[in-house]
Specification:
The protein is of the alpha/beta class. The protein has seven helices and nine strands, in the order βββαββαβαααβαββα.
């Protein structure tokens, strides 16, 4: 599902440098990414999603080398194939919860907003325990509730790849396990792949594999 080969990445300003010689994740795997803050875990997710492109090397999702596509193609591919749960939620305060969940369908013609999609959005909201908050705005929600909205939005199109940046970081111990189980259920239902950044060591036994960014720090040149 994910193949990374000889990528180097630098931000235009600053001394951050990320080098990953090789990383491969098979379809259906649930993989956790751990490592120290600032080591590049979120950067990895952005490279996989095509939000960032490497200065060298390639990133492929399935049979598509996303790193070589132009901006519009990467955007359309991301919206239709990748569900991204952002650490900062990425919600729009001027939209209510329901419209935030449906937002991917309103910004591209690649997705068709139908009655079935609306029904699926409501089912996801019920599963995440926020069905009674669909008419509220993000500013009226707790951090944990905003996180759940972000998860619903990412899962709604039924993506084959789910990228999660601390998806359970704002949840209490009981709910974080519940939300993780819902993520896993959706991954299994769609035969999808999950790549999740986490600092929560207690969650690691739930994953199939763990990628430790300490392995890549030796190849970085600061």
């Amino acid at each position: 599902m994910i193949r990374i080969s000889d990528i180097d990445f630098r931000y235009p300003s600053g001394e951050f440098y990320l080098s990953i010689p090789s990383l491969s994740i098979t379809a259906g795997e649930k993989v956790a990414v751990i490592g120290p803050s600032g080591s590049g875990k979120t950067t990895l997710l952005n490279l996989v999603a095509g939000i960032l492109t490497p200065g060298k090397g390639s990133v492929s999702i399935g049979n598509v080398e996303i790193s070589s596509q132009h901006d519009r193609a990467r955007r359309d591919f991301r919206i239709t194939n990748i569900g991204f749960i952002f650490q900062d939620f990425g919600l729009l305060d001027y939209l209510d919860v329901q419209d935030n969940i449906l937002h991917p369908y309103r910004i591209t013609g690649a997705l068709n907003l139908s009655s079935d999609v609306r029904e699926r959005a409501h089912i996801l909201a019920e599963q995440m325990g926020i069905a009674d908050k669909l008419n509220r705005h993000p500013t009226d929600l707790s951090h944990g509730e905003r996180q759940r909205v972000a998860i619903c939005r990412a899962l709604l199109p039924g993506p084959k790849l789910i990228l999660a940046d601390e998806a359970t970081g704002n949840l209490d111990p009981k709910n974080k396990v519940h939300i993780l189980e819902l993520l896993f259920e959706n991954v299994d239902r769609h035969n999808a792949t999950l790549l999740a950044v986490t600092h929560d060591q207690e969650l690691l036994p739930h994953f199939d594999n763990v990628v430790n960014f300490n392995e890549f720090l030796q190849t970085e040149t600061l």
